[in-house]
Design brief:
The protein is α+β, with helices and mostly antiparallel strands. Helix content is 32%, strand content 27%. It folds into two domains: 2-157 and 279-285, Ribosomal Protein S5, domain 2, CATH 3.30.230.10; 164-275, 2-Layer Sandwich (Alpha-Beta Plaits). It has helices spanning 65-77, 100-115, 122-132, 136-141, 176-184, 194-202, 206-210, 216-219, 226-234, 256-266, and strands at 2-18, 24-43, 49-53, 84-89, 144-148, 153-156, 164-169, 240-242, 249-253, 271-275, 282-285. Strands 1, 2, 3, 4, 5, 6 and 11 form a seven-stranded mixed β-sheet that branches. The protein is globular, with a radius of gyration of 19 Å.
């Protein structure tokens, strides 16, 4: 099977509380975009999960969410033979706040449910995904949605208007756990007006939505994304903000020419991509694939 695992953007991100177990409550609007990893999965005769990747530094053991997702699904579905070969072709940058690992986990859950013929519905699959990470439930469905709780309570929204996002990040990524620890010590920072953002998306007004792109990891000074955000705005973006806990920043353009001009300017200092909003998080393509 071939699975396209799309990245996500946090068009806005607010942290509304913290549980005793350390998990945080969020209120965020998320958007799938067509920057994606490709995950290839095949059954194998020998038991176990054999994972490879085009990135030599990427963990291919239990530290990788693909392996953890496969084991978790096998336990939930009572699968005794767990022979799986998988290969990740990474395009989504690591440590960017773009949910690359979560998207890979979601793709693994969907593909193996089908490959193993498991009677597990979408709600059960989402609950399993939440055990792997707060972004996994959204990545399973994707599109445009508001997420609350710890990320598992999803309210689908109207598709985001046609546009182009420019995504850029410095050479270094962010460790999410450390970013949350820094944010917990901050007070008095700007918070997003999520209701106004949702209303703008519902009205199909991309320009109004762009003015509501706010991320508390950025406004609290937890990350150093301010220079990159200002650079994007100076290059004509309608709005720009950090995604997730960073380190990637995204900006919005209506014109392809303006977006490409921005990207070409940014690649002088950063890694940069253009991406369009899409209405699904995962695309599973059944194919005859033999992984050797």
């Amino acid at each position: 099977m071939e699975i396209c695992c799309n990245a996500k953007l946090n068009l806005s991100l607010d942290i509304t509380g913290r549980r005793n177990d350390g998990y945080h409550y969020v209120d965020t609007v998320m958007q799938s975009v067509d920057l994606f990893d490709t995950l290839y999965i095949d059954s194998a005769e020998e038991d176990g999960i054999e994972l490879r990747s085009n990135l030599p530094f990427l963990p291919v053991d239990e530290r990788n969410l693909v392996c953890r997702a496969a084991h978790l699904l096998a336990e939930a579905g009572g699968v005794t033979r767990r022979g799986v070969k998988a290969y990740i072709e990474k395009r989504i940058p690591v440590g960017a706040g773009l949910a690359g690992g979560s998207a890979n986990a979601a793709g693994t859950l969907l593909a193996l449910r089908e490959l193993w013929g498991l009677d597990i519905d979408d709600a059960e699959l989402s609950a399993l995904g939440l055990k792997l990470g707060a972004d996994v439930p959204f990545c399973l469905s994707g599109g445009t949605a508001r997420a609350t709780g710890t990320g598992e309570l999803l309210t689908p929204l109207k598709p985001f208007p046609r546009c182009l996002f420019v995504i850029a990040m410095p050479d270094t990524g962010v460790v999410t756990k450390e970013a949350f620890q820094l944010l917990d010590a901050k007070h008095g920072y700007e918070r997003p007006d999520t209701e106004a953002l949702v209303a703008a998306i519902g009205a199909g007004d991309a320009r109004a939505a762009a003015k509501r792109f706010v991320n508390v990891f950025e406004t609290s000074g937890t990350c150093g994304a301010g220079d990159l955000t200002r650079k994007m705005l100076s290059l004509g973006a309608m709005g720009a903000a950090l995604t997730g806990s960073g380190s990637a920043v995204f900006s919005l353009f209506e014109s392809h020419l303006e977006a490409e001009a921005c990207r070409l300017e940014l690649i002088k200092e950063y890694r940069a991509w253009t991406a369009r909003p899409v209405e699904r998080g995962i695309y599973v393509k059944p194919r005859i694939i033999y992984l050797k």
